[in-house]
Amino acid sequence: MKLMRPHRLKNQTQRIASLSKCNMRLLTRSNIISTVVLLVALVVSGLYIYDQVCEEVRDEIDEELQNRKLEILASLPAQGTPENPALKADFRIERVSHSEYKKLKEHYEDIEIYELIEKEVEPHRQLVTRFKHQGNYYRLEIETSLLDLEDMGEVITRSTAWVCAGLVLLAFLINLILQKRLWRSFYQTLEQLHRFRVDRQDGLELPQSSIQEFQELTQAVSTLAEVNRKSYQQQKQFVENASHEIQTPLAIALNQTEQLIQNPDLKEEDALTIGLLNEQLERLSALNKALLLITKINNQQFGEQEAVELNPMIIRLVGECEFLAEDKRLEVKLENEEAIVVQANYHLMEILVRNLIRNAYLHTPENGFIQIRMDTRQLTIRNTAKGIEGKPEALFNRFTKQSTHRQSLGLGLSIVKSICDAYGYQPEITSASEEFVIRIQF
Asked: Does 306-441 carry CATH code 1.10.8.60?
């Protein structure tokens, strides 16, 4: 049976959390879209209403101008020449030639006339037509004000703007209230997922919802959480059993080989064989411990956290490796710039630092150089080493070795990467021709 790793549940929880953020963006975006659509619809409808009203008003004005034309023509004298009134009126009569008369077509046009009362130029509607009277040809211009139409347009525009603002605000408030009520169970479920841990016995208390999609989500999350809790318990039990069942016979075998080596009657050839066997058993024991450690880290079995200051830990571990520096005549430079304090499990931090320092001492050639620099949120270890072909990040993979050193299992940096992944640290490896640099951003 293939078990789901607990960190996969964590990843799925993070996906659901990111989904909620997308939903938050989706809800906000839907609000914005619906508001913009409503606003555009109101503006378009207002413009349409204004256009229809203007068209109707213009038709009425044009009809009045036609009636006024008939009145003027009916009032022309039977004899004599028609003249403009002494005072300025709403029409003008101008005598034209026959050729101009033929070219002139009756039409309407918008003009602007200075109003004495308003003391400004105002829009007017004008009818330009022609007529024949007693053998003569005349041009007739009749005008009327469009002030009512302009005022009406202002009223419509102002009213539409207020209606748009009110409806948009109302729609936004209604959507906001409805969304909070409709999505309440979803956010309660998300809050439970944020607090959920597979290594605890308390289960999820997910809310019930009358919305079918949210109810299906609740059931799916409950099933997923229960499956992962059982998987975690099975994996934890397997790791504990494997640690005991594998390490115990290895310890017994190592003890027996050591006793055989101490036997004075042992032949030289047999002693060499047993020594090689003892070396391989020690390697197998170290490999077993390293793999079990990686499994425990991935299963998040190091839950206890505290404020850990790495500087004194690094100085102490460097001091423990001083004999290696003397044997290989290494130049070790320790730069303790600022304190590095992290919230993590102390044992895991010691494993991380020990593996980094051990890696540097192990792979630095004789007469080489090691520089360990501690900054506020960063640890940098730089050492002399041959350039690495390919991508240096591949060294974080299991059983990938930087060299052929017999003591190297190819798991040291993999353990470092697992610890960094558990706490969200950023490990980085760079390699030049004669330099190897690993940097941990806490």
From this structure: no
